[in-house]
Amino acid sequence: MTATALVVDDEVDLCRLMQITLTKMGIKSDIAYTLTQAQTYWETNQYDFCLTDLNLPDGSGLELVKQISSSSSSPVAVITAHGSMDLAIEALKLGAFDFVNKPLELPRLRQLVENALKVIRQDMNAAPNGRTPEQQLLDSRLIGDSAVMHSLKNTVLKLARSQAPVFLSGASGTGKEVVARLIHDLSPRRDGSFVPVNCGAIPSELMESEFFGHKKGSFTGAVADKQGLFQQASGGTLFLDEVADLPLAMQVKLLRAIQEKNVRAIGDTKEMPVDIRILSATHKDLNQLVQLGTFRQDLYYRINVIELKLPALNTRYDDIPALAQHFLRLIAEEWQLDMPSQLTDDAYQRLQQHDFAGNVRELRNILERAITLAETTVIDVNHLGLPEINISSQTPDLHYLNHALDNNILNTNATVTNKNSTDDTPVNTAKSEQVNNIQSKAGTVASQTHTTVNLHPYRTNNQPYPSAIQASNPIGFGKDIKQNDSVVKKTAHHSEDDLVQSPLTQADSAALPAKGLEAYLQEQEKRLIITALKQTDWNKTQAADLLGTTFRSLRYRMKKLDIDED
Ligand SMILES: Nc1ncnc2c1ncn2[C@@H]1O[C@H](COP(=O)(O)OP(=O)(O)OP(=O)(O)O)[C@@H](O)[C@H]1O
């Protein structure tokens, strides 16, 4: 089917040029020279998309953008005078799909039209029952059926069609990266790369080279040409995670690259055009950082065209059962277990009473640990490692009670429990055999999984889960492992007392360190890290948890202290 477009501009020559370009791409088009003419054409004919200038003799193209995006799902793109970035941003906020600057560059125009065609084709292929493949993908990866998640999912679908920069805000572990990936995978850019980068993890002296690349010999150590993240993401999406951690000097360079859509590698003489969509995220209050002067207002304005706030898990307790089941399935798959574990009624209830400071990531972490510690595939409250609450005698928290009654959670959980209530069913006998494999696989496979998930060396999905750490006394966790000695190999040479006794207490009664304070502290640090690693069969995530630190920090310290996994 031939696509049709409405082109709106008062410059006759430019209209002709655009019409010729569209015709060459197999698109039929009509031309309108004024806003009124465009509005009449749009109402009386059916067009698949619209390309409009913003400066029209009888009004602003923004009027047309508003009209089209509020009444149809057809993509509308705007043409802006060079340098009028504010208007372009305004148009994107009103629902424009993309913008192109004057003087018009034909490759850029073709790219924009190609993306519009992909969105149109996507709409035409929508399933007749209304559940598009896009919605199915969204539901399978962004778990949650609460009202707030419903509206989030609708927004994600809309944002995926647009090229507007999106800023994802929300606390750590709420799913910002999940949403960023979905926006990319549901967008016309899905065939390009999704390049996630943790801005806080790149050493500042390497930043420019990481973002823009370098030419061989441009500085000591540049032994070969290197492609930057912008070039890697060209045709796709660049996800700037922890964007608040960008140093000010880099913010300037980034702003320029985003605005100009051109980058120059270090040591190169020419600029290279890049076609990227920018998504960014941070758990910090970026607005406040702008007030404090540590984040540039112009960059904030540029990346925060549309803000999407991810809800905290504590505001959607109804989603916990579905999320838990999703993770139990996922973990079973990743750890190659025969079947997913199941939670008892009490365990579901306890989870729904927990204060998830670490959000969804914390929930997953709790379940990973519970699977490792449970003797069968049935996970009960004691495996969750959360502070004790007497569920049966205690009046449930008001929020839990409301959610449970409103959403029938208690019934759902009862079904799960009934399935698992007798330990000697054939299913459970098979499960207990499976458990023997779980804990040995858990450590190694879990750590492998964590490494392969990270697409970029500066990206890490592993952050601390404050409340889980608080709840599970590190030493208590070590003891649990010890009790299950037959299933989890414990190889630590040091006693637990070594862990309990602080270096300072030891120093009190010892002579002063012969090699000086630094060397002594490093030795202690190394010893504690190795102890934790051995206790967890070299699972860095769990070891970090034991030490009350982050995965990233542990990895950094291991490198610094020369602790080699081999
Ligand atoms: N709605 C959800 N459905 C399924 N999994 C989710 C959801 N939200 C988060 N997760 C999972 O929780 C973990 C943390 O998510 P993610 O890394 O996207 O959080 P984040 O907000 O980017 O965290 P941070 O700010 O620390 O980078 C991941 O394992 C992710 O797959």
Automatic annotation (TrEMBL):
BP term (GO), one: phosphorelay signal transduction system
SUPFAM superfamilies: CheY-like, Homeodomain-like, P-loop containing nucleoside triphosphate hydrolases
Family matches, as CDD domains: AAA
Pfam families assigned to the protein according to its UniProt record, in alphabetical order: AAA_lid_14 (PF25601), HTH_8 (PF02954), Response_reg (PF00072), Sigma54_activat (PF00158)
Ranges for domain Response regulatory: 4-117
Residues annotated as domain Sigma-54 factor interaction: 142-372
Modification sites for 4-aspartylphosphate: D53
Name recorded for this polypeptide: Sigma-54-dependent Fis family transcriptional regulator
UniProt xrefs under PROSITE patterns: RESPONSE_REGULATORY, SIGMA54_INTERACT_2, SIGMA54_INTERACT_4
SMART domains: AAA, REC
Keywords on record: ATP-binding, Nucleotide-binding, Phosphoprotein, Transcription, Transcription regulation
A molecular function (GO) term: ATP binding
